[in-house]
Structures are given as C-alpha cells and as structure tokens.
Design goal:
The chain has one helix at 3-21; strands spanning 26-36, 39-50, 68-69, 72-78. With 88 residues, the protein is α+β, with helices and mostly antiparallel strands. β1 and β2 form a beta hairpin.
C-alpha cells in the first residue's frame, strides 16, 4: 500500500460519496482495507456501509453497488443503522 493509493481512493470517494449515500440501505462511505472472509487484507478500497446486506438478485434496478469505482475496489460492509448522539 502506498500513500498515492490511499490518496487516490480518498479522491474517488469524495467525488462519488453523495451518489453512493443516495442509494437505498447505504449509511456511510469511507476508505479502508478490504475484508474477505472476515479477514482484513492490505487492499485499499472504498468501504460502503449498509444497514443490511442484500443479495444482488433481491435489489431493485439501479440499487446495486458497483464492485469498483474509477478503478478503486468497493467493499460493502453490513453495519446496521448508524446513529449519532449530540451532547451538550
């Protein structure tokens, strides 16, 4: 992993974040390491957090997430609902 790889992933994420967040079920978008079979790899990717993972065959047309964006891999991770709490 190089700094250039991370910076490229951050730039691609920044350009496509709003579009990804408009997709149903998506709760967050970030940059991190791809996880496969529960094991973290050294592959930098755009991490898309969803409430619930849904098989592609069950998604409405246009709701599926891409496997890569502008050459940067995408990893879809089930996180449940994300809630922020404000404090005083």
């Amino acid at each position: 992993m190089s700094q250039d790889t991370v910076e490229r992933a951050m730039e691609v994420k920044r350009r496509h974040e709003k579009e990804l967040l408009r997709k149903p079920n998506v709760v967050a978008v970030g940059v991190g390491f791809r996880t496969r079979g529960g094991v973290r790899s050294d592959e930098v990717c755009i991490v898309v957090s969803v409430k619930t993972k849904v098989p592609a065959s069950k998604l409405k047309r246009g709701a599926a997430l891409p496997s890569s964006i502008d050459g940067v891999p995408v990893d879809v991770v089930e996180t449940g609902e994300i809630r922020a709490f404000g404090g005083r």
